[in-house]
Amino acid sequence: MRLRNRLRLLGVAGLALFTVSASLPPATASGAGRERHPSGGGLSAVVRYTEYGIPHIVAKDYAQLGFGTGWAQAADQVCTLADGFLTVRGERSRFFGPDAATDYSLSSAATNLSSDLYFRGVRDSGTVEKLLKVPAPAGPSRDVKETMRGFAAGYNAWIAQNRITDPACRDASWVRPVTALDVAARGYALAVLGGQGRGTDGITAAQPPTAAPPPAGVTPEEAASAAKRLLSAQNADMGSNAVAFDGSTTVNGRGLLLGNPHYPWQGGRRFWQSQQTIPGELNVSGASLLGATTISIGHNADVAWSHTVATGVTLNLHQLTLDPADPTVYLVDGKPERMTKRTVSVPVKGAADVTRTQWWTRYGPVTTSMGAALPLPWTATTAYALNDPNATNLRMADTGLGFSKARGTKDVERSLHRNQGMPWVNTIAADRAGHSFFAQSQVLPRITDDLAERCSTPLGRATYPASGLAVLDGSRKDCALGSDRDAVQPGIFGPGRMPVLKNRPYVENSNDSAWLTNADRPLTGYERVFGTIATPRSMRTRGAIEDVASMADKGRLKVSDLQRQQFANRAPAGELAASEVAKWCAALPGGTAVGTGGTPVDVSDACTVLRRWDRSVDSDSRGALLFDRFWRKASAVPAAELWKTPFDPADPVRTPRDLNTAAPGVGRALADAVAELRAAGIALDAPLGKHQFVVRDGKRLPIGGGTESLGIWNKTEPVWNAAGGGYTEVSSGSSYIQAVGWDDSRCPVARTLLTYSQSENPKSPHSSDQTRLYAGERWVTSRFCEKDIARSPDLRVVRVHERR
Q: Which residues, in sequence order, are CB contacts of 486 under 8 Å at separation 6+?
């Protein structure tokens, strides 16, 4: 059977190679005629497009698979890709000026100059080249390196053979050919996103102290609060939900998976959808982060997987004791060690090059801040070095490639164990055989609670319990990070220390720690750096567990049940609070509440609206917008004041609860929300979609879903623009959604949706087609098997290759 399938695939690929009547989607570039009959030799691939511009890439080997992927990504996303390659080459200031803001896709750098100083330093030091030479599994495999080489060639071939139509970079001099090193460097930037990438401004600004008074620091208590906010902010634009059900809950004993990652809708952290096939070797469908050569989230014939941003803290700090005579010398067990000086020069548009010095230690770079709220002053006696174990991790693509070739959840686990390449995500998977799987398998600094107890500085004693950010005494060798025997690199946890849960009726994560992956089987025993145990869960986690536990109890689940869950749009916060607010509101003397500044506001109409609201955030829900604006303000009230019944670790899904309407902030929040909507000319009972929308092709598309604090599974993080009519764009939220199961055929039962569509080019027909589906809560039926691809009414086939 396997041989027959392989021959069938080869036959389809061979037919595609000689299909001369097919072409790329007509609006991807103006040179569609040339794309029908490219000439020359070298690398090549077959790209078959089905509905919504989804490419199915067939190639003979990994280099040619990378070629087809690079070509097809460039066709849809050339400007965003080119912008990212400019970033990792450290050339943003050269083309856009030093002071302009970045889009934060590849680091937290506030300005182009800060970004360039960091990435040019990475390039000058040969960091990525060295990692490429590390033998697998500690370094990337030959197959992955071949995909990188092919991706660069495919991207270059596309820009050489086509005229760019996207206004974002049409005729731009900064769209240039790239190398395999550029592709690898982009992957490296994603790996360090939660470590060095988070501390970029502090790394590039760090300079030895002068005679001037040192900058003010913060108290340990202030640092603890700042670290907690800093580390939780990662989920503001990158979060996710995912659930896997095992065969005991499904209609046919096979597994089910619903993946709902929440990522930015614009820029370099968008997903891009495709199918990758090497006949007899690889056949996988899903979505890749832009610039990635392998599938990031997806499914094959036997297994499906998704990721959620994890709570593990991917960095730590070492507090250095400095030589009183020289602040660039630090002491370890009383012996002096001189910092390494890295001089970095960055070309700047219209000005002379900027040259700065970065300072590195045995622990990593010196940094003077972790965001504005957490300054780490470099004084005559103290400095701080940032340790990021992902700075030696170029294994993410191999981990994903292992998933792509998996035949079950055991193979997913094997890839995690062998490659150990996931920097900041959990993995959730289900398979055809009915298994479910969760693992918080991250590359984390090996900070045990015992090490933190022995070696934390006063600052660390505050930050580690509060946030998981360890600040260790860098002056002691016995405070160095240890090693696990099963770890692929020194200084990280091995697989045996990771939180894992297998073959439960459901395993679910919504960006809280691993503790309540299954509420009936809480996970414990892991170190604080992984996340918390027995602490309050987010509203989204609480709602998600209620939903998926109920689904598991109901049983006989199918893919259609996953689809309903995705768009149920239930607002758990509304169910907890709306009735209480409506009753309190109705009892107000004269229907008046006091807003900010003591302003009285007539809120009597709001009482009826909230009482009648259906507690959902569908686009036609009346009252959802009012509650949303109220709840954003009320959520600022401390939990101890907001709820009458406090959190109980024995009842973590149902607590805290019972809104305390007597808390002054609650009434003020309602008054302010009512005043805000009236000032914007928005009716209190207006349908949500009338004022929560995106504009595509000149038309408003109503968008359902809601923000984090409401607890919505289908997260929508909209941009408030009262003068423009309400929420007029989406910054982040549901992105590449997949609902996957299996029946008795070899073809998976899969429904997918890329909420923001394949292309950011407004001239492409695939810049908004799936967004229209998302607005209508409709799905794409995955065309995975050859017979389904061949039946696509929109099938277009092209052979793409290099010219010589």
A: 417, 494, 495, 496
C-beta of residue 767 within 8 angstroms of C-beta of residue 694: no
Encoding tokens for residue 773? 């589906």
**Backbone CA torsion sign across 405, 16, 59, 55:** negative
A 10 A CB-CB count for 147 gives 31
Kindly list the strands in the beta sheet with 282-289, ordered across the sheet, starting from the edge strand earlier in the chain.
500-502, 436-439, 425-431, 303-309, 297-299, 282-289, 271-278, 54-58, 44-50, 796-801
Condensed to tens digits (0 to 9), the pLDDT of residues 441-465 reads 999 999 999 999 999 999 999 999 9
Residue showing tokens 């509440």:
593
Which carries the bigger pLDDT value, residue 625 or residue 224?
Answer: 625
Which residues share a beta bridge with 622?
Answer: 687
Q: Which residues are identified as catalytic?
A: 240
* Contact indicator for 220, 465 with CB cutoff of 8 Å: no
- Tokens 């996970």 sit on residue: 523
Q: Quick one: tokens of 477?
A: 């060798």
Across the range 117-126, mean pLDDT stands at 98
Say if CB 209 and CB 368 are below 8 A apart.
no
CA distances (Å), origin 630, targets 36, 185, 228, 581, 780: 55, 44, 25, 10, 35
Beta strands per DSSP E along 219-264: 239-245, 256-264
CA 143 to chain centre: 25
Is 663 in contact with 641 (CB distance < 8 Å)?
Answer: yes
End-to-end CA distance of the chain: 40
Secondary structure class of 692 (helix, strand, coil) = strand
Burial class (CB in 10 A: 0-12, 13-18, 19+), 438: buried
d(CA 501, CA 428): 10
Which pLDDT belongs to residue 231? 75
Q: What percent of the residues of the chain are helix, what percent strand, and what percent coil, each to the nearest 5? A: 35, 25, 40
Cα 131 to Cα 125, 297, 391, 518: the distances in Å are 12, 24, 9, 38
The rounded distance, in Å, linking the Cα atoms of 395 and 135 is 11
pLDDT band (50, 70, 90) for residue 635: very high
68-72-76 Cα angle (round to 5): 170
The pTM (predicted TM-score) of the whole model is 0.94
Closest CA to 500 of 416, 419, 424: 416
Bridge partners of 271, per DSSP, are 289
